[in-house]
Write a structure and sequence with these properties.
132 residues; alpha+beta; 48% strand; 6-stranded mixed sheet; 6 strands
């Protein structure tokens, strides 16, 4: 199996499961796949974060906002691995409750990853709503 395919398998399993957990109100699995090394950043659809403290605060707010995930799909458009760096580009299709209200939405998501201690960690995320 190629290095790229191993990375994509991780994205389609560990990362996907962490996103589903977040959309069910549990930020711990998402936090576990994020780097503890600086720099880390989020340019989010709702809120931005830079650094470990802001990242922890953002993930807590998101976990408090989300519940009852009915579906989550990451439509992977591109993925690449170059040494200890990788990226993904795709669409996240989600149905979950947001502040108690059921919602279905799609986000464009670009993430950058670093290999740390033999495993992948997210270092940066950019999520935004696609144009109408």
């Amino acid at each position: 199996m190629s290095e790229r395919q191993e990375f994509v398998n991780w994205v389609q399993s560990i990362l996907r499961d962490a996103e589903i957990a977040l959309h069910n109100g549990d930020a711990e699995p998402r936090r576990a796949i994020w780097s503890r090394s600086e720099p880390v950043s989020v340019l989010g659809a709702w809120q931005n974060a830079s650094g470990q403290q802001e990242l922890d605060e953002l993930f807590a707010v998101l976990a408090e906002s989300f519940s009852d995930c009915m579906s989550y799909e990451f439509e992977l458009l591109e993925a690449e691995v170059r040494g200890d760096t990788a990226y993904t580009v795709g669409f996240e299709h989600t149905t979950a409750s947001v502040n108690g209200e059921p919602r279905t939405y799609t986000l464009r998501a670009t993430q950058i990853y670093r290999r740390e201690n033999g495993g992948w960690k997210v270092a940066h995320r950019h999520g935004s709503a696609p144009p109408d």
